[in-house]
Specification:
The complex is a heterodimer of chains A (88) and B (432). Chain A is of the alpha+beta class. In chain A, 20% of the residues lie in helices and 20% in strands. The longest helix of chain B is centred in the last third of the chain and has 18 residues. Chain B has 432 residues and is of the alpha/beta class. Chain B has 17 helices and nine strands. In chain B, strand 7 and strand 8 form a beta hairpin. In chain B, the strands form two sheets. In chain B, strands 6-5-9-7-8 form a five-stranded mixed beta sheet. In chain B, strands 3-2-1-4 form a four-stranded parallel beta sheet, sandwiched between helices. Chain B is 40% helix and 13% strand. The radius of gyration of chain B is 21 Å and the shape is globular. The chains are: A alpha+beta (88), B alpha/beta (432). The interface between A and B is large, with 25 and 48 residues.
Chain lengths: 88, 432
């Protein structure tokens, strides 16, 4: 079974904050109420709560995505990804 | 900005040494027209899809900031179903950079050759050249260069056209550019899909920086071995650097990758006054202390241990009597205002960071906000649809590190600068 994690579409997100209520194990809110999402894989025991959080988001901004183990990162705030994206 | 002038060398066989991209550009300051271009380089070769393997051997990496392997990017587009589109990215929203615009202005046919080569390599029939915030006259010059090629049917089945994108920092981000070309605002989109999957009009789209394509035009003619004669094994070739600040001659310089910052400054006539620090990589890059930075080779491999990257190769020299905190506060405010306004963490986070830095710069004793600054910098990273917050956070974080003494001074109500402003920012209100 592949890993899953939660991810937010920051363009769609309007800081309703329900996700942090429903999935505090992975989501906390910043000073303005926007979610800070821990991209660590969801253990089986958290997947139901994650699905509930996804369903509860009024702007459909929360997603569950499949990941590979190589991409998972340790718990904590999202890590800096460094590189810039203007190119090519 | 003045470009490095050429020595006007004639090509008997392979062009040697520097400059490569700017070789055709003479001291008269006039753009290289199609005849002079063809005289110098000969007709454009037509390797078609074979170009991708040649580029892979060359090791060419994108010159727009991401340093992504060009062959890999082209291969990804070529392997998608559907007829691809090529976008030449010369939007260059970075205020400290002027190289892509200069290339299109002075050696447009080198870039256009590369665009058509790339189109033929991936099977595209349309190449769209996007300039950012360019005056009418530059668009007109580019359009007439395109028309001159069309009259001679130089580009066969590839249709080339120019578009004028807004002069906004994020307009050159590739999803923003695709969205703009499709008639939307020049603002990034949520990914996936990335443009190579679904870009202009839904087609797989190769968004390639203008300088990258100019290198492609030369590699197609002279080969990957020639390209690798300069630079290092991992970062081969030459690159354009936009150098400004406290140097004798600001301008655009073509360097061999691996040239030290000291050599680059030497090429620009040396420092105009004693230096305190450098911005390397533009406003998505970072600050480096001058004495630490000068001996460093301009290579990602050499800069990475210092937390810096070459990015779009904009370099700014800060003199000793300018204040790094004041300068960083100006840039932080600019970057916050240039947020596309779509993602909460970028809108509110960058604004808070810019506000706190502004207070620090003005030596206001506001411990609460300044204490939160470090946390906000960490928290905004990775939380936008694009990397705008990441780039801004990196720039500010490097300032707090390099100018730690100056931060202390400001907290005690003093400043070592003489209230001068060095870092280039757009004079007027930017267009969104």
């Amino acid at each position: 079974m592949s890993d899953q994690n939660v991810r937010v579409n920051p363009i769609a997100c309007e800081a309703h904050g329900l996700c942090a209520e429903l999935l505090p194990e992975r989501i906390r809110l910043d000073d303005w109420g926007y979610p800070i999402v821990d991209p660590a894989p969801l253990p089986l025991g958290l997947r139901k709560n994650a699905r509930r959080a996804v369903a509860a988001c009024p702007t459909l901004a929360l997603l569950i995505q499949k990941t590979t183990r190589a991409r998972s990162v340790p718990a904590g705030p999202p890590l800096a990804r460094g590189a810039i994206d203007r190119d090519s | 900005m003045s470009a490095a002038a050429s020595d006007g060398l004639r090509l008997a066989a392979l062009p040697r040494g520097l400059p490569r991209l700017l070789a055709g550009y003479g001291r008269d300051g006039r753009p290289v027209d199609l005849d002079s271009h063809l005289d110098r380089y000969g007709p454009q070769p037509r390797p078609g899809p074979g170009l991708i393997a040649v580029l892979e051997q060359s090791g060419l990496q994108g010159r727009g900031g991401g340093s992504f392997p060009t062959a890999q990017k082209m291969g990804a587009v070529a392997s998608r179903p559907g007829r691809p589109v090529v976008v030449v990215n010369a939007v260059e929203g970075e205020p400290a950079s002027g190289k892509d615009r200069a290339l299109l202005r002075y050696v447009p046919h080198l870039v256009l050759d590369g665009a058509v080569l790339a189109a033929e390599a991936v099977g595209a029939r349309e190449a769209i050249v996007a300039l950012g915030g360019a005056p009418e006259i530059e668009i007109a010059a580019l359009t007439s260069a395109i028309a001159a090629r069309a009259r001679r049917r130089l580009d066969r089945s590839v249709h080339v056209r120019a578009v004028s994108a807004p002069n906004a920092f994020v307009a050159g981000e590739e999803t923003a550019l695709v969205r703009f070309i499709d008639g939307g605002p020049a603002k990034p989109t949520f990914t996936p899909p990335r443009p190579f999957e679904r870009g202009v009009g839904g087609a797989p789209t190769l968004v390639q920086n203008a300088e990258t394509l100019a290198h492609v035009a030369l590699i197609a003619r002279f080969g990957p071995g020639w390209f690798r004669e300069l630079g290092t094994v991992d970062e081969p070739g030459t690159a354009l650097v936009t150098l400004s600040g406290a140097v004798s001659h600001s301008g655009i310089y073509e360097i061999e990758l691996g040239t030290t910052l000291e050599q680059l400054v030497g090429q620009a006539g040396g420092a105009a006054e004693p230096l305190r620090a450098f911005v390397v990589g533009g406003y998505f890059g970072g600050w480096l202390d001058a004495s630490a930075a000068l001996p460093l080779p301009l290579l990602d491999a050499a800069l990475a241990p210092h937390g810096a990257a070459l990015g779009a190769r904009a370099v700014i020299a800060l003199p000793v009597d300018a204040c790094g905190i004041v300068e960083t506060a100006r840039v932080a405010r600019y970057l916050a205002d240039e947020s596309a306004g779509q993602c909460g963490p970028c809108v509110y986070g960058l604004d808070a960071i810019a506000d706190a830095l502004g207070r620090l710069a003005r030596r206001e004793r506001d411990g609460r906000r300044i204490a939160a600054l470090g946390r906000w910098i960490e928290e905004v990273r990775g939380r936008g649809a694009c990397r705008h917050p990441d780039g801004a956070a990196r720039f500010v974080a490097s300032a707090l590190d390099v100018f730690a003494d100056e931060v202390d001074l400001h907290l005690r109500g003093r400043c070592s600068g003489r209230n001068r402003m060095v870092l280039p920012l757009p004079a007027k209100e930017p267009t969104r």
